[in-house]
Amino acid sequence: MRGQTFFLIVIFIAFVICKRTPRKVRRLPDGLLLGSATAAYQVEGGWNEDGKTENIYDHLTHTDPCFAVDCSNGDVAANSYHFYKRDIEMLRELGVDFYRFSISWTRILPTSFPDTINQAGVDYYNKLIDELLMYNIQPVVTIFHWDLPQKLQELGGWTNPQIVEWYGNYARVIFSLFGDRVQHWVTINEPQQICQWGYGSSELAPALNLSGEADYMCVKNLLLGHARAYHIYDEEFRPIQDGTIFISISCDWYEPASDTDEDIQAAYDVNQFMWGLYVHPIFSKRGDYPDVLKKRIGEMSKKQGFLDSRLPEMWQDEIDYIQGTSDVFGLNHYSTHYAYRNASTAKYFSQFTKPSFEADYDALTYQLPEWQIGKSNLTMYVPWGFYKLLTYIRKQFDNVPVFVSENGLATHGGLKDDDRVAYYRGYMAAMLDAIDEGSKIIGYTVWSLMDNFEWKHGYTERYGIYQVDYKNPARPRIPRKSAYVFKEIIRSRTIDMNYKPDMSIPMSVYY
Ligand code: NOJ
């Protein structure tokens, strides 16, 4: 009897220890697709080659040469326009299922419109797509990753409602050129960064800095443009090409800074303002903007003397046109923040006399210094925030399938990127926790395949699992430790927290 009790106690202690110790080896579910990503302006270079014309990043970096902190630009970047074969070699070394890249609008349509199709541009993407398929790597093609034709910007860009047709026609050309081979389309990458950062601030092109006005005009046109491309694909191409089409929305997670009602409400509001305004119209059953945006922007606009809300109203036919227009939820996720609202936030925002996106959501946010795991503070390490976000999406939107279209950490260079390795292990494990609880995650994408032009940060912040030597005209790419680790994750379909790669073995011997 005493022996039996002892045995039960041992089992109980072993159970408690197992529960408390983070699992060292995690298995990936069958069918989860793994890949990596880049975007045209960030890697291609060839900015004016073979008939390509100017886009808003060419224009901004040439007219304001120190727009990027290191006064750099994407004129040559990683020169993938010429070195794409090496990029595909890297993807083969890794063993990925897919490669997400974007198409440069002005490389295909130099006048911005379908009246002129640039054959050299078409040839470039044909070669890229065909070579990927030859090695059984699925192309996941982003139709628009921020590089709007400069000419269209001069016509108002995303604030001009005509852009719905301009973008729709561009997308139609892309489907007809490449849709016989491309099965996965991303309409638009990261609407928040386009509208709030590009039109509402000067962080990104076109750097209009018209917060609380231009950004909201952009939101509505962008949602309609995305829906236009979706419907064109759905009606004209899907019946023959039978692919998937979705939007990639960047969602950081905002957590209440305390359990007061004010902070809980503040975090809810910030999540809605940052990404709910794009997610709700597409993925909720009712469509339209979240109520909190309509209410708050409406009230603030009235107080400021506007006759209408600065958030352009969505009419019922537009709500219906946008609702349900994404086959899956394309999710770009990087980090988490705390949000709060109290007397000091009220005092801070009372000084704002002009319209402002921040004053509209009326809360402040911060991150903890201990979340920084490397030299860069661009992406802070908070894997539990990823888990919370995935859980929220599952519960809120009827367990919509999620394709994680970006996730990654910036470093300041070097091949032994232990911080990035830790980040990927932690974030993938958090994703597996959500999957264990029922989240349907169908793909996971490492941002980025290689170091590239990180917008305002130029080449100072490096997201690549391959390092690119920007001093060398041949732009050699060298695998970092994270590339070895990602390769092993793909090969073994497990995350092994103890795996230590032997970086003296060249990656190329594997394929
Ligand atoms: C999101 C964007 O899609 C990409 O262009 C950027 O480089 C990464 N996040 C990192 O900031």
What would you say this structure looks like, in words?
The protein is an alpha/beta fold and 511 residues long. The chain has a domain at 23-251 and 380-496: TIM Barrel. Helix content is 44%, strand content 14%. The protein is built from 18 helices and 15 strands. It is globular and about 75 Å long. The chain starts with a helix and ends in a 15-residue tail after the last strand. The structure holds 1-deoxynojirimycin. 1-deoxynojirimycin binds at residues 39, 42, 189-190, 332, 406, 447, 454, 463.
Q: For the CA atoms, what is the radius of gyration?
A: 23 Å
How is the biggest beta sheet arranged? 8 strands, parallel, barrel
- The average pLDDT is 96
The multimeric state of the shown protein is single chain
Report the CATH architecture of the domain at 23-251 and 380-496. Answer: Alpha-Beta Barrel
Strand content: 5-15%
Give the CATH topology of the domain at 23-251 and 380-496. Answer: TIM Barrel
Bound molecules: 1-deoxynojirimycin
Total number of β-strand segments? Answer: 15
The CATH class designation of the domain at 23-251 and 380-496 is Alpha Beta
What count of helical segments does DSSP give?
A: 18
Distance between the termini: 59 Å
Silhouette: globular
| Largest sheet, spatial ordering of strands | 2-3-4-5-6-8-11-12
- What is the CATH homologous superfamily assignment of the domain at 23-251 and 380-496? Glycosidases
Low-confidence segments, given as residue ranges, are: none
**From the helix content, strand content and strand pairing, which structural class follows?**
alpha/beta
Helix content: 40-55%
